[in-house]
Design a protein that fits this description.
By secondary structure, the chain is of the alpha/beta class. The chain has helices at 10-17, 19-26, 50-54, 57-72, 86-97, 119-126, 133-136, 161-172, 208-216, and strands at residues 2-3, 80-84, 104-108, 147-152, 177-182, 189-190, 201-202. The chain has a single domain, classed as Alpha/Beta hydrolase fold, catalytic domain (Rossmann fold). The protein has nine helices and seven strands; from the N terminus they run E-H-H-H-H-E-H-E-H-H-E-H-E-E-E-H.
């Protein structure tokens, strides 16, 4: 499953990130939930709203996973999740609120679970006011899934301190984490030949999509 960022659609993210082409080539199922303007005018997932994560958007996303898995006979123990920006923050919130649902995760330019309880605290965390790693570790799920963590060190939208503290918190909680903190990368996803360059998608700084798919064991 892949969660798009603010102002994006599921179709745009599927194409620009390269996930659509990669899934077709390696024959794995790809689920792309899409935010609605009714929930958020900027199409951001509501990662900063605990009620939305547990009972609203989060519950709807998990129902999509269950529906697709049942319809296609997929193994629910091999469900993986990735996302960019607000999608990354949402996936981290889902891991805390609904533990055990995902076998591995790969957030790109996200905000850790436990860093925000509303819009104001979310914006503060994005600006670099993220809680200490020891505090964030309390929001890492028990038996945390392996984490592939991606963030640009030149990100001026979500401060890279978010990734730095999250990596430490995940390790403190006993989780396995690989960190990709990329010099020169702003608030964007590094893509390879399967992706389409554009706003928040850049070539020349690695192929996160292919590497994440390999991390998930999909190719």
């Amino acid at each position: 499953m892949a969660l798009h960022g603010c102002t994006q659609t599921a179709a745009l993210y599927a194409r620009a990130s390269g996930w659509q082409a990669l899934a077709a080539r390696h024959d794995f199922a790809l689920l792309l939930p899409e935010q609605t303007k009714r929930n958020n005018q900027s199409l951001c997932f509501s990662w900063f709203d605990p009620n939305a994560v547990r009972h609203g958007e989060g519950a709807a996303i998990l129902r999509m996973v269950d529906t697709v898995s049942a319809a296609h006979g997929l193994d629910p123990s091999r469900c993986y999740i990735t996302g960019l920006s607000a999608g990354a923050a949402m996936l981290l919130a889902l891991l805390e609120a609904h533990p055990g649902r995902f076998a591995a995760a790969a957030p790109l330019a996200g905000v850790p679970a436990g860093a925000a309880l509303d819009v104001a605290s979310g914006l503060n965390a994005m600006a670099g006011g993220v809680p200490a790693a020891a505090q964030l570790a309390r929001h890492v799920p028990q038996s945390p899934p392996p984490l592939s963590l991606w963030h640009g060190l030149a990100d001026d939208r979500v401060h890279p301190r978010n990734a730095e503290h999250l990596a430490i918190a995940w390790a403190l909680a006993g989780g396995t984490v690989e960190s990709h903190l990329i010099p020169g990368l702003g608030h964007a996803q590094p893509i390879g030949p399967d992706g389409t360059p554009g706003q928040h998608f850049v070539r020349g700084l690695g192929d996160s999509t292919s590497e994440i798919a390999h991390f998930f064991g999909l190719h």
